[in-house]
Design goal:
Blueprint lengths: L2 E5 L4 H12 L3 E5 L5 H6 L2 E3 L7 H11 L6 E4 L14 H22 L8 E5 L15 H21 L5 E6 L17 H14 L7 E4 L8
Parallel strand pairs: 1-2, 1-4, 2-3, 4-5, 5-6, 6-7
Bound molecules: NADP nicotinamide-adenine-dinucleotide phosphate.
């Protein structure tokens, strides 16, 4: 049986990852700050109280996970705080860097010793972190933090190749979650995660370090 770990597991895309991974027979470790009734209802292992910017909370998580081999790690937790030039907020930009870029990098490094040869590391990024694709501007903190995450992911792909760990940067599409105010033009989390798991399954050491849309499109940096 494969063991998969998902952060941001209590709602949105993370919750749906847990649901679909469990349905296909994985042992799932759901990491979150506060469990939701929907997550509890899955009956999977929940590691709660994990604020990802809090070093002590992350150290506690690592202690509880000690000795557990992880075949798939999905670092999905993230925040979006929209801002333009007129309402630029330095603190909000720093926080988005911490949650969206620094926390996944640090957690990746901490979990690598528990990831065997052939395991996979998935970083949930966004097309808003594509410089080439940016024709609408704005969203400074979110865009900058996801660019930073993309670069971290590319370096991780290079550095972890000798360990046999493949890394992917995945964009879920526009998905109807709280992050985007359940925008009705978004797709359902179910549909997004089906595509995302196809990308996970297709990922190899040869394709490690690429930036993919859930629909299979290779995205420009
Ligand atoms: N939805 C989209 O259209 C879309 C598009 C592109 C990329 N993405 C990316 O996909 C990922 C999942 O997004 P989503 O749409 O599912 O968002 P969401 O519904 O807002 O869920 C975000 C998750 O991240 C967790 N989280 C946020 N800050 C955290 C922190 N400091 N410590 C621990 N957990 C934290 C939240 O936990 P709490 O419940 O405790 O706040 C929640 O579980 C994100 O990385 C996002 O950037 C989403």
């Amino acid at each position: 049986m494969k063991t998969s770990l998902v952060t941001g597991a209590n709602r949105g895309i993370g919750l749906e990852y847990c649901r679909q991974l469990q349905a296909r027979g994985d042992q799932v470790v759901a990491v979150c700050r506060e469990p939701s009734p929907e997550l509890v209802a899955l009956g999977i292992r929940i590691e709660s109280g994990v604020e990802l910017t809090d070093a002590d909370a992350v150290a506690g998580l690592l202690l509880r996970l000690k000795g557990l081999k992880l075949d798939l790690v999905i670092l999905n937790a993230g925040i979006l705080q929209s801002m333009g030039l007129s309402d630029l907020d330095a603190e909000a930009i720093r926080l988005q860097f911490e949650v969206n870029a620094l926390a996944p990098l640090q957690l990746s490094r901490a979990l690598v010793p528990q990831m065997p040869h052939g395991s996979k590391l998935i970083l949930m990024t966004s097309r808003m972190g594509s410089i080439d694709d940016n024709s609408s501007g704005g969203s400074y903190g979110y865009r900058m933090s996801k660019v930073a995450l993309n670069m971290a992911g590319r370096s991780l792909a290079v550095d972890l190749k000798p360990n046999g760990i493949a890394v992917a940067l995945l964009h879920p599409g526009l998905v109807r979650t709280r992050m985007i105010g359940f925008n009705p033009s978004g797709i359902a989390p179910e549909q997004s995660v089906q595509g995302l798991l196809e990308r996970v399954d297709a990922l190899t050491l040869e394709t490690s370090g690429c930036f993919w849309h859930a629909n299979g499109q290779l995205l420009p940096w």
